[in-house]
Amino acid sequence: MSDTYANLVNNGVGKEVANKLGLPRPAQLRRYEKGQDLVDGPVAVGGLGTAPVAATARTVLSGAGATVVEATAESSYDGRLGAVVFDASAARTLDELEGLRAVLAPAVKSLGKSARVIVIGTPPDQVEGAEGAATQQALEGITRSIGKELRAGATANLLWVDTDAQSDAGSLAAPLEFFASSRSAYVSGQPLRVRKASDDQASDWRAPFVGEVVVVTGAARGIGAEIAKVFARGGAKVIAVDIPAAGDALAKVANTIGGVALQLDITAADAGERIAKAVAQHADKLDVIVHNAGITRDKLFVNTDADRWGSVVNVNLQSQFRINKVLLDPATKGGLRDGGRIVSVASTSGIGGNRGQANYAASKAGVIGLVRSLSAELADRHITVNAVAPGFIETDMTKKIPFATREVGRRLNSVLQGGQPVDVGEAIAFFAEPGSSGVTGQVLRVCGQSQIGA
Amino acid sequence: MSLRDVYVIGGNRIPFARSGGKYLKASNQDMLTAVIDGLVARYGLAGERLGEVAAGAVIKHARDFNLTREAVLGSHLSPETPAYDVQQACGTGLETAILVANKISLGQIDSGLAGGSDTTSDAPLALNDELRQTLMQANYAKTPQQRIKALAKIRPNQLVPEQPRNAEPRTGLSMGEHMAITTKEWGISREAQDELTVNSHHNLAAAYDRGFFDDLVTPYLGLTRDQNLRPDSSVEKLATLKPVFGKGEGATMTAGNSTPLSDGASMVLLSSKEWADEHKLTPLARFVDGEASAVDYVHGKEGLLMAPPYAIARLLKRNNLTLQDFDFYEIHEAFASTVLCHLAAMEDAEFCKTRLGLDEPLGAIDRSKLNVNGSSLAAGHPFAATGGRIVATLAKMLHEKGSGRGLISICAAGGQGVVAILEATSEDNK
Ligand SMILES: NC(=O)c1ccc[n+]([C@@H]2O[C@H](COP(=O)([O-])OP(=O)(O)OC[C@H]3O[C@@H](n4cnc5c(N)ncnc54)[C@H](O)[C@@H]3O)[C@@H](O)[C@H]2O)c1
């Protein structure tokens, strides 16, 4: 999808004019390419007090090939940093936050293009005493604000790591690598909770899905097609699902990634069985299901009708319940294995609501409810359940939005541009990685820190 | 050498379009490639080398001398998959399936695609014969002067292209005209033909509605269902159409109860049990046997489209079966009256005795088992694509039922017929 404005102000004369007029200039975001380094430049790592996670982070980052340097209040950096990781998980008093400011500020000043700020904390609900909780909660405000100040494609995110996972590289590796890498290009200002990984499954972040079977619904185009490609890139056999009427586009997607096309309306009563049957043709069990298919039928709440209401809730939410039920039955051949992954696509509309989208927001908020409840239910089977909530992503769906509204949606975020479908795919793949077993019940926004739906 | 069982793994086709309809700009090669790619995607075969691909087209451009191989090269199959063209008029599609099945049975190959494509929208226009001769002379001219002299012979009337004709070269009669003669001979009524036509439309529409074709059809160029399909077709509506074949009082064949010219392509995937197991694919049905026949229609001994009963009689005998031993009958509806003539002939003691040499007539069939998911009258009939459509449809029906047997019968120009038997896999029969 083309963003004419971004192309104009980033090239030739347009760039000069934009500079002179002080027009916002959306940066070209660093995105994953084959063989790319984890980060573009050295990573400065620092922390407060005992900084229990900093040591783990150093191990993980150098293990992933990054050059790690010390971040202190006195550090001066030669050249641009690819990222700064700051461990504030031990902070329990508000006074300690000054230490964060003193160390983090010089590092942030030295960040290069599309660099990363990653703050690490302890989940406030695991901290004793109100001041401790307040201190940890403060990290969210700090991270979100830094995210809004960063330019040139840099992002800031927060990892709240459970106390029992803080010195466990197996729990930290996948989330830390995701946020450090270019795969999180359109994720900024977001907190994510990391629990102790249920099993020690180290995975190569470049090829985490070798030998796995992954189902992606709504894969004929848009975000779904990119999700399918990201999984295939990571080594998965992808079963791409879409309605029979989209079969020709679906076949093209499947053939370019060596996957399988399954023409199926996910609202069909036997959709779960048919997915399981397709899986069984390739493996005994399914590793990952991505519920991406979705529709909009916008109309003001007072004017909408039963059909618009029902169809959106049915496609976007109810179908997931029906399909999950079949796939989660341990007796189902081709069902989801223990230790498998369920990832759903929510929306920032489901978080903040949207004019004319009561039905859609109902379905997407519902997805968030589903994820939170089901993740707890399935914890003992080590199945994780998460959602991504995309903001404005450049697809056929957003092409339908009138120009002015579309332009607002596109610019009103920290990176001044719409996201690409692949950005959503990367976040979903991260949730699905074997190494992400400690991440469950989470909703991650892929929205460039949009003001909409906040 | 021992023979192996052969299985129909699945199939794919694009919706059939009416001539001059949605596929006006699509060539046979385009359609065949799209069908192969849809099938490759359905079974996850991208980059695979198959034993072979056999397909053909009845109406073909000279440039399509290697149609099937070119389609394979344009597809996601491995370019190391060999391919060849077959042409047996409307029997092409089924004949390719028999050829591929036989090679698999012999162990020469383990897997293959069989099918065909046809378009009457992108039909070749032949040059007027005189013009062609003039141009050839100009081509062989030695000097510019000679060339100009040759070209000067072109007259305006030579610029009218030779129209492609849907007629039998040896009789000059169109297929419909031939059929009208046979229809009259067998006394097939207009009502019976219209009723069969309505059933075809209703059955096909119902099959689409219940998702039967979800894994048999891949949409193409904006078409998601067969363009000719009329779900609201009724005997009353059909009764208003004027006859187009045959003359005067007894004329019963209309544009409604005859198949329209259409465009489309289809393919089926056949393999050995081992290949299916290796690919974790569940066979839909076993391809049991096939037989072709031809009749002398030129000297009026038999009707042009009456060959299939001859093939059926021989096939049943070889397989120790009676006509009543089937759960499904797929009789290609070239015209509604073709099907009805075949059924009448097979019930007729005299026909079966004198023409087929049988002591007993083949007998009647249970009509509720005939073309239960619709056939060519509703779907359309892109000549070479019909066989693949029927094989895949019947195979899936047998898989859904989980047991039993089905008979396929297709009549073809030149007084020919191709028939085959499919059977539910033994696993289904358990
Ligand atoms: N584009 C955005 O900005 C944006 C923002 C937030 C959330 N989302 C969500 O992301 C997901 C993908 O959106 P997109 O922009 O790629 O949309 P899209 O319309 O381009 O693609 C959606 C796909 O889902 C398929 N689909 C719809 N109903 C189906 C059904 N019943 N069965 C099977 N497949 C079905 C469609 O055929 C289509 O191929 C949706 O859930 C959407 O709500 C998108």
Automatic annotation (TrEMBL), chain A:
Transmembrane segments: none
Ranges for domain Ketoreductase: 212-391
SUPFAM superfamilies: NAD(P)-binding Rossmann-fold domains
Gene Ontology molecular function terms on file: oxidoreductase activity, acting on the CH-OH group of donors, NAD or NADP as acceptor
NCBIfam families documented for this protein: PRK08261.1 (NF006110)
Stated family: Belongs to the short-chain dehydrogenases/reductases (SDR) family.
Protein name: 3-oxoacyl-ACP reductase
Organism in which the protein naturally occurs: Metallococcus carri
Taxonomic lineage from the root: Bacteria, Bacillati, Actinomycetota, Actinomycetes, Micrococcales
TrEMBL record, chain B:
Keyword annotations of the record: Acyltransferase, Transferase
Transmembrane spans: none
Cited Gene3D superfamilies: 3.40.47.10
UniProt protein name: Acetyl-CoA C-acetyltransferase
MF-aspect GO terms: acetyl-CoA C-acetyltransferase activity
Residue stretches making up the Thiolase N-terminal domain: 6-273
EC top class named in words: transferase
Keyword Acyltransferase found: yes
Gene Ontology terms: cellular component: cytosol
Enzyme Commission designation: 2.3.1.9
Catalytic residue list: 90 (acyl-thioester intermediate), 381 (proton acceptor), 411 (proton acceptor)
Originating organism: Metallococcus carri
Protein family (similarity comment): Belongs to the thiolase-like superfamily. Thiolase family.
Domain Thiolase C-terminal: 282-423
Record Pfam families: Thiolase_C, Thiolase_N
